[in-house]
Each structure stands twice: as C-alpha cells, then as structure tokens.
Amino acid sequence: MATPTKRSARLTGADGGPLRVDVRRAGDAAGTVVVCHGFKGFKDWGFFPVIAERLARAGFAVVSFNFSGSGVGADEQTFGERERFGRATYTNHLKDLDIVLDALADGRLAFRPTAVGLLGHSMGGGIAALRAAADPTITALVTWAATARFGRLWRRDQIADWRRTGKLDVTNQRTGEVLPLYVDMLDDWERHQSALDVTQAAARVRAPWLVVHGSGDESVPVQDAGELCARARDAHILVVEGAGHTFGVAHPWSGSTPAFDRVADATVEWFARHLHSTS
C-alpha cells in the first residue's frame, strides 16, 4: 500500500463560514470514511489524525472536518472562532455533514467515492447515526462513546440562568479557556427534539453498526450504547472495560493506550468487513 497523502479543502459551512476539511488517501481507495468529532473536539484533536492515518493506510479514503460551530479557527488548533462556537446548533452540525457528503458525491474533494461509511465520536456519533438513519447509501457505521440523546450539555437547573444571561459558560478543560454557548443550541434542541432523537433514529439505521463505548465513560453513560444497540437492526456492541470517554487518549497526542488500540483495531476491521459499494 502506498503512503497516504493529505490534502486540505475549504467548503462553506452551514453558518456561512469556512468548513475546513482534510482528505487522506493512498491511490484508489476501497471506500471512504467520513469522521465526525464531538463537542469541544475538532478534526486534529488527539486520536482523530491517528485513526484517519490508520484507516488511510488500510486502503480507505478518509475525510475529516471541523463542524462550522467547533470554534476552532484558521490555525486548526485553538478556539479562535468563539462566536461560531457560541452559535453552534445540532441542526447545523447535520447540515455540515450533508455539505461534506454532497461535496464528496459531486467530486469537489478531488474524487468520487465508491462507498461511504461514517465514524463519529460522542456528539459526532449521534450526528453520524442521525445521518445514517436518513441515508441508505451509508454502508457502514462506527460510533465511539456516542450519545443516545442530545441535550446533556446542560442541566435543567441551568436553563433559567442561561436564558436570562443569554449564554452558558463552557470550559475547555485542557486550557481553562471559557467559551460562550448562546441560546441557539438550546432553542434548536427544543424546536427539533423529534428530528434530533438519536435513540428513535437508531431503528432506521440500515448500515452494519459497531457501537463502541468505555465502561467508565465519565461524559456519556455506557447505558447509551445498550439503548442504541437494542434499537438498531444490525449492530454489534464493544464495551471496553474501564475505559473513559476518550479511551485514555489526551490532546495533544502523546501516545496510544491499550484501550484505544483495541478500539482502533476493531474500527479498521469493521470498515474492512462492511464498507462496500451498493451499486
């Protein structure tokens, strides 16, 4: 297998700003995996470049991108776009994924895929599941620590103050930086709860689905994995005993862990087995 190359592209995101995309590819790929990061994550966080490179070396084209509301700016490492972060919504995240998939389909990312699979972590796992539920052309799905329901970013007792002040303070645990989250996400959730119901959408996912979760996840309870699998038509659950939300990996990347190695191996194997053209 040739060494994968990486090229960057810019699309227009759901909020009208830049949608930053990376494409890794080595020759003619067997299929394409689109990677969706989670809340306060970004395409270059911790393990995302590592799994992207592994998948590319395994023969897949890999497309990773920053959601338009990620808050990560042109340097692609820091939260330089605070207002975009503050105005993020789940609906716009879904639209961003649509924009990336449309660009793939019409060749704007320099090739047209023979088959498409999705990989999502945490919130990105929920977004990937919603898209897979609505799109029968998605032929394989892997989620890591995926939420079965949105709206967990806040507690019920925070809503009154959030509406009164117009923002909810969100702390970047790595840097201590406090980011504003305006009421856009709360309004979006309240208006579109049915369309954003990941648990209900799970029953409509046709693609073979690997649901990965750490038993010690401190952000999304492992019970969410069981709920998603119970609803899905064709799902396999992998619970990594003792692993947390990021499987022991931190940012910046400082090396792998046994938990992440197991997750990465299972992910590559799943796509190798299930990502194929439906034509």
Outline the structure in words.
This protein is of the alpha/beta class. Helices cover 32% and strands 22% of the residues. The strands form 2 sheets. It has an 8-stranded mixed sheet, sandwiched between helices. It has a two-stranded antiparallel sheet with strand order 7-8. Strand 7 and strand 8 form a beta hairpin. Helix 3 crosses helix 4. The longest helix is centred in the last third of the chain and has 17 residues. It is globular. It starts with a strand and ends in a 5-residue tail after the last helix. The mean pLDDT is 95.
Strand content: 15-25%
So what's the overall shape?
Answer: globular
Helical residues, percent: 25-40%
H-E order: EEEHEHHEHEHEEHHEHEH
Strand order of the largest sheet: 1-2-4-3-5-6-9-10
Distance linking N and C termini:
25 Å
Q: Helix tally?
A: 9
Low-confidence runs (pLDDT<50, min 5 residues)?
none
Structural class estimated from helices and strands: alpha/beta
Mean pLDDT: 95
The total of beta strands comes to 10
Task: Output the radius of gyration.
Answer: 18 Å
Largest sheet features: 8 strands, mixed
